[in-house]
Amino acid sequence: MKAQKGRKSGRGGSGEDALRAQLETQLSALAGLGPRAEPAEITDAVESVMATVEGDLSAVNLKLYAEIEALSRFIAAAKSEIASVRPDEINTEHLPTATDELEAIVGATESATNAILEAMETLEPIGDELGGETGRKIADSVTQVYEACNFQDITGQRITKVVGALKQVEEKVDTLLAAFGEDAAAARRERTAEPKKKQISADDDASLMNGPSAPGDANVSQDDIDALLASFD
Amino acid sequence: MSSVDMNMHILIVDDYKTMLRIIRNLLKQLGFNNVDEASDGSAALQKLRDKKYGLVISDWNMEPMSGLQLLKEVRADSRLNGLPFIMITAESKSENVVAAKQAGVTNYIIKPFNAATLKTKMTASIGQF
């Protein structure tokens, strides 16, 4: 009790002395009630003291506390919203898929370009053998095809730039995930606990539009398709 | 009358095999059949030091040694510094062209290019053929 007094004295001020006196008065009144003091009466006494304490705070302080509390609520809501959109999926699913698709484009165009060049390399000497106007026309056309095949190099370079940009996005998302780590982790746990069930029906057009299969995916040949269709007969 | 040795060796440098194939075919159409390939600057530099070439046609954007670095190495080498060097690249910003010129490039072709442009720039670099 002595230490408590000393601590209060340390904070100083006539306001605190008055507060202590008021508390002592109310406790004395409660003591007079003996063991029959009702909880509601004790609560009233504490609320009365708390009201006095709040009265001691300045209006500026109260406003500041309210602003901080509102800010805290806003941050909590933002964290919750960001976690609910599952930003970890961007790095674990969306970006890798996008990168794979882009690399598949480069591979496919390169393969197609080489096939075109091979055909032209076969055609070119035939034009030379033919000679005359026909041979010249073939040679000119072959040259135009060679020139047009420049696109593959340009396409590859542009896509490489896009892949670089995606990697930057990935780094930023990583930073975001680190900042909101616990909420994102909670979202991830929730998703793991409840695996997605992709319902596919013939009427659900959107869910059937997956685009070309990626390299490495199990590709279905025309023979497989024919066999599958035949199995319905 | 051609002032150019049509049997000269030409080194083409690009990290895209398709591009090497296109340039090789265009050079063949122009009458140059002795064409060697390299996939980056360091491989090209080794070839240039091992064999006599009359022209280098190089891409810019390659790793580990870029076309610009290759050009600087060539110009810094007393046995190679007079070699005609054409840069064929998608790098079309003026600062790229200026940097290449300052490094001693003989001519500069922007991708995509056509056969006529290649011939014009080659003529300007090695003479009429």
TrEMBL record, chain A:
Q: Which Pfam families match?
A: CheZ
| InterPro entries on file | Chemotax_Pase_CheZ
Q: What's the protein name?
A: Chemotaxis protein CheZ
Q: Which spans does this entry mark as compositional bias, Basic and acidic residues? A: 185-201
Which residue ranges are recorded for the region named Disordered? 185-222
UniProtKB/TrEMBL annotation, chain B:
Does this entry carry the keyword Secreted?
A: no
Q: Does the keyword Phosphoprotein apply?
A: yes
- PROSITE patterns listed in its UniProt record: RESPONSE_REGULATORY
Q: Which residues carry this modification: 4-aspartylphosphate?
A: D59
Please report the name of this protein according to its UniProt entry.
Two-component system response regulator
Keywords (alphabetical) are:
Phosphoprotein
Q: Which residues form the Response regulatory domain?
A: 9-126
From which source organism is this entry? Answer: Rhodovibrio sodomensis
Enumerate the SMART domains for this protein: REC
Coiled-coil ranges (or none):
none
Which Pfam families does this chain map to?
Response_reg
Name the lineage: Bacteria, Pseudomonadati, Pseudomonadota, Alphaproteobacteria, Rhodospirillales
